[in-house]
């Protein structure tokens, strides 16, 4: 009876402890791996989709804008060049100020959300930060290249038109005056 009772109690306690520990360890490992895999996959897919869509839209808009700006600059050289210079400086100052404030606010918010720690909040903060940074980098590069291309085209066309007009007018007036004076003096 004593052996039976002891064996029964020992077996029950051992089984209970083993089952409890095994279940706890398995659940913990499964939850950890599942959360890790889900977060990784979600972040990867979100980043890929966002980058692809942003790049496509930006490229389309840039191509259209560049073609339009170049054609416009060729038609209205001097006026367009002056307006563009003013707009460029104003836009640069405004963009710089806005970017600084936006980056500060976004960084603060992202840090807060990330510290919060849940899978939902972490995914949300990561997606938000990724989209913001991707858009910022793409917009910055696009703006830089577009401004460079437009400015180059505008400067080239303006210089060409101005030089042509000035040279034509100067040559015409000089030739006319010289001929007139020479003829008058000779006569």
Using brief descriptors, characterize the structure shown.
mainly alpha; 0% strand; 187 residues; single chain
Write a structural description.
- This protein has 187 residues and is mainly alpha-helical.
- The protein has a domain at 131-156.
- The protein contains three helices and no strands.
- The chain has helices at residues 2-75, 77-116, 119-186.
- It starts with a helix and ends with a helix.
- The mean pLDDT is 87.
- Residues 1-187 are annotated as: Disordered.
- Residues 110-123, 170-187 have a biased composition (Basic and acidic residues).
- InterPro entries: Uro-adherence_factor_A (IPR053328).
- Residues 1-17, 48-73, 160-169 have a biased composition (Low complexity).
List the helices and strands and how they pair.
Layout (H helix, E strand, L loop, with lengths): L1 H74 L1 H40 L2 H68 L1
- Radius of gyration over alpha carbons? 36 Å
As a percent range, the share of strand residues is under 5%
- The end-to-end span amounts to 153 Å
Number of strands: 0
Summarize model confidence as the mean pLDDT. Answer: 87
Order of helices and strands: HHH
Apparent shape: rod-shaped
Q: Given the helix and strand composition, which structural class is it?
A: mainly alpha
Number of helices: 3
Helix content: over 70%
* Largest sheet properties: none
InterPro entries: Uro-adherence_factor_A
Could you provide a short overview of the structure?
Residues 1-17, 48-73, 160-169 have a biased composition (Low complexity). This protein is mainly α.
